[in-house]
Design brief:
Oligomer: single chain
Number of domains: 1
Distance between the termini: 28 Å
CATH class: Mainly Alpha
CATH architecture: Orthogonal Bundle
Strand content: under 5%
Shape: globular
Largest sheet: none
CATH topology: MetI-like fold
Radius of gyration: 22 Å
Number of strands: 0
Length: about 260
């Protein structure tokens, strides 16, 4: 069944891509290039993008912003989730007030505040992305801690494992599938937030580049950046994060623990 479904999905994806490309070519022939450039002009712009040291510098800046924000948000989320789990008195504040507040606060609002607080800088961009990603880490890791098998915990304690040894041998492996899923979600969301943060609060990066291209009606560059992000996020999800999530679920998931 699974072997038969793969070719069907591949054919459906190819047909969708062909239909989308045809619609793009058809529409671009009837609209001004500044509104919808044809594929060949976007391809030329992509060639210039990936051979320009300046453009690649913007790409590197965005990669740094995404990576740093994920690391900081995930680290803070782990600390807060563990703090709320082991210190029950803190749980209502962290999960009942802080997490909903961060989740409800708009990302653009954080970006504008960051510009006021830190100026147009990398710090503003990383801060804006981090506070948007933090609730994802808090919610997912809270669910992971809540799903800990108490029987396994009691068995480990009966064998003399307590304190840090119990945390390393039991808690961390049980959290691995939730951590992998959290990183996968955060990576996708980070790219959406990063462009907005760089657009308003950055002095470099792909968001900043898109803003310059918008002012110059350089639609080819905008298409190049957007398509680059789509392809990069898709490949990273398929080749890195999805296999990592499956591997951790297979190795440390509930079925494995039983």
């Amino acid at each position: 069944m699974r072997a038969d479904s793969n070719p069907v999905k591949a054919i459906a994806a190819a047909l969708f891509l062909a239909l989308l490309s045809s619609a793009w070519i058809f529409a671009s022939a009837r609209l001004p290039p500044y509104m919808l450039p044809p594929p060949d002009r976007v391809l030329q712009a992509a060639g210039k993008f990936f051979t320009s040291q300046r453009q690649l510098g913007h790409l590197s800046a965005t990669l740094f912003n995404v990576g740093a924000s994920i690391v900081v948000a995930f680290g803070l989320g782990c600390i807060l989730a563990l703090f709320a789990h082991y210190l029950k008195a803190a749980a209502p504040t962290i999960h009942g007030r802080l997490s909903p507040f961060l989740n409800a606060f708009p990302g653009v609002g954080w970006t504008l505040l960051a510009v006021i607080w830190f100026g147009v800088s990398t710090t503003s961009v990383i801060f804006s992305i981090t506070v948007v990603l933090l609730p994802f880490a808090l919610v997912n890791l809270r669910e992971g801690l809540a799903a800990l098998d108490r029987e396994v915990d009691e068995m480990a304690r009966s064998f003399g494992r307590d304190g840090m040894r119990l945390f390393v041998a039991v808690v961390l492996p049980a959290l691995a599938p939730f951590a992998a899923a959290t990183l996968r979600i955060m990576f996708g969301v980070a790219w959406k937030v990063t462009l907005t943060a760089e657009l308003f609060g950055g002095s470099e990066g792909l968001g900043y580049l898109i803003n310059i291209a918008r002012q110059e009606y350089d639609t080819e560059t905008i298409f190049t950046v957007v398509l680059t992000i789509v392809v990069a996020v898709y490949l990273a999800d398929r080749l890195l994060f999805a296999p990592m999530e499956r591997a951790t679920a297979r190795q440390f998931g509930p079925e494995r623990q039983r």
